Recover the amino acids of this structure.
């Protein structure tokens, strides 16, 4: 979901106002997916690299996340949207962790749409953490090296239980034709759509345009 800060700058607003608008578009996108009977949505909200941003911006981003998890949760419950956070949580403070865990618990029985919010997430970091967990189980004789397959390794990733990604939409303009460390294991056969719009500009019409593109592409998975 790229372009919050650039949208704010373009409109003479502060970066925090860009993030505020981006959060509103995100909950709208969740509802579009639920309305269109899409079962899974994973949103890249905060990367491992984003920790390098200023403390002022980080404070606002996490305040906004807490606000989303508390104020928007009723809309998730109404639409049957289950919330789950993926990524490395060890750097989150206790308050943020508590808010996240409460949102996950409250929506645990929702079944219309499963939303994974990637926070403190990096694809290489995820794979590294999975490899460490798998190696630990090998050392403890919980699994044999000979039993390791792609499916087994997938069970150690943050997205265990979630199908591989069919379709990736990236906003932020055609100069940003890259995945930026987003789910590298899970997107090996994903179709890609790059939107000219910045994330706060992303609309229902652009979402439909993206889906129309997806259904027009024959999917062969290397066959």
């Amino acid at each position: 979901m790229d372009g919050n800060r650039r949208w704010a700058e373009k409109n003479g607003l502060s970066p925090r106002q860009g993030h505020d608008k981006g959060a509103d578009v995100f909950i709208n996108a969740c509802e579009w997916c639920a309305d269109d009977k899409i079962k899974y949505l994973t949103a890249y909200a905060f990367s491992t690299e984003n920790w390098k941003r200023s403390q002022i911006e980080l404070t606002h981003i996490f305040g906004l996340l807490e606000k989303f998890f508390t104020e928007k949760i009723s809309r998730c419950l109404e639409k049957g949207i289950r919330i789950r956070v993926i990524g490395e949580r060890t750097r989150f403070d206790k308050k943020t962790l508590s808010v996240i865990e409460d949102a996950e618990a409250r929506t645990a029985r929702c079944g219309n749409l499963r939303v994974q919010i990637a926070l403190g997430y990096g694809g290489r970091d995820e794979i590294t953490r999975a490899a460490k967990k798998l190696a630990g189980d090998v050392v403890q004789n919980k699994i044999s090296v000979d039993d390791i397959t792609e499916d087994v390794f997938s069970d150690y990733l943050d997205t265990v239980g979630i199908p591989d990604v069919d379709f990736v939409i990236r906003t932020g303009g055609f100069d940003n034709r890259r995945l930026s460390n987003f789910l590298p294991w899970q997107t090996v056969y994903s179709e890609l759509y790059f939107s000219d719009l910045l994330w706060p500009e992303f609309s229902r019409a652009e979402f439909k345009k993206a889906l129309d593109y997806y259904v027009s592409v024959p999917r062969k998975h290397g066959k």
